[in-house]
Design brief:
Blueprint lengths: L1 E14 L2 E7 L11 E4 L8 E4 L2 E2 L3 E7 L3 H7 L6 E8 L11 E7 L4 H12 L3 E8 L8 H7 L2 E6 L6 E2 L2 H7 L6 E5 L2 H10 L2 E5 L15 E3 L7 E3 L6 E3 L7
Parallel strand pairs: 8-9, 8-12, 9-10, 10-11, 12-13
Antiparallel strand pairs: 1-2, 1-7, 2-6, 3-4, 3-7, 5-6, 13-16, 14-15
């Protein structure tokens, strides 16, 4: 992991309040899917953790939703400006290339880290189904990008304005996807619902973070088997095998 002043190559709006930023930085060469970077935002003390969406030769991509002051300021930056990034941080998704198929499930801003993962699985010859859940049609992003990789894509919207009406589990049922090895990232209720149905695979968790590198214990999750054992989401995670930590 390293701190670097990257250069913004692209910044574009992808959907309602959702932006895609491409950053040129030498730290790209150390990245694996599922890891994140901690981004410094001018005028704010704490860095903002954002998942790595795509890893390319000398640049990486992030996709983020504007939810508060930090992401709002980030969305105002333009190509050519410098942005300080610290990373890559945490443990990403292990690639189980001997699998026949993997089901990638993303909810809202949990979708981005699944993109690089889809690339790696498809390159390894593994069939990839992607199921994405959004609130409404105007929030959807990256459907065609996943399709262009060769993944089979299903979409659920809560209001039924696009794809299957309901949650990602409704879309999985509607598309009759029977793959039992999953990698998922998204809101807690989604992960809890998936934990009831799947035992094989990995979840990426979110938590409020301060240091982002294992020093402050701001982001701990309880171990699922041992009550007095904790895991730091920023350091041992954010990706954990299903069933390793208590989802709370
Ligand atoms: C490992 C990890 C990966 C993430 N990847 C993405 C991503 O790819 N795309 C995306 O849109 N969002 C992602 N998030 C959530 C993102 O970090 C927050 O939305 C962002 O920090 C909000 O900052 P803000 O200043 O706009 O909001 P504010 O609410 O003003 O932030 C106040 C403080 O709370 C923290 N905070 C607020 N919401 C969250 C949250 N959900 N998770 C962690 N800290 C939060 C902020 O970092 C900041 O320190 C990720 C979070 C984590 C932990
Ligand atoms: S944010 Fe400091 S230990 Fe995880």
């Amino acid at each position: 992991m390293k701190c670097d002043n990257g250069t913004i190559l692209e910044q574009q709006q992808m959907a309602k309040d959702v932006y895609r930023m491409v950053i040129s930085s030498p730290i790209t060469s150390q990245m694996i899917p599922g890891q994140f970077v901690n981004i410094a935002v001018e005028g704010l003390t704490l860095r903002r953790p954002i998942s790595i969406c795509s890893i390319d030769e000398a640049s990486f991509t992030i996709i983020y939703k504007v939810v508060g002051e930090g992401t709002r300021r980030l969305s105002k930056m333009i190509a050519g400006q410098s942005v300080n990034v610290f990373g890559p941080l945490g443990h990403g998704y292990p690639i189980e290339a001997d699998r026949k198929a993997v089901l990638l499930i993303g909810g809202g801003c949990g979708v981005p880290p699944l993109y690089e993962l889809a690339k790696r699985y498809i390159k390894a010859g593994v069939h990839v189904d992607v199921v994405m859940g959004f609130d409404t049609a105007s929030s959807i992003f990256y459907e065609s990008e996943f399709q262009a990789l060769g993944a089979s894509v299903s979409i659920a919207t809560m209001d039924g304005s696009y794809g299957c009406k309901g949650t990602v589990t409704d879309a999985i049922q509607a598309a009759n996807i029977t793959t039992d090895f999953i990698c998922a990232c998204g809101p807690l209720p989604m992960l809890k619902a998936l934990e009831q149905r799947y035992t094989q695979g990995y979840f990426s968790l979110e938590s409020r973070m301060a240091c982002g590198m294992g020093a402050c214990m701001a982001c701990v999750a309880h171990d699922a088997k041992s009550a007095d054992m904790y895991h730091r989401i920023c350091k041992e995670g954010p990706v954990f095998p299903i069933g390793r930590v208590v989802l709370s």
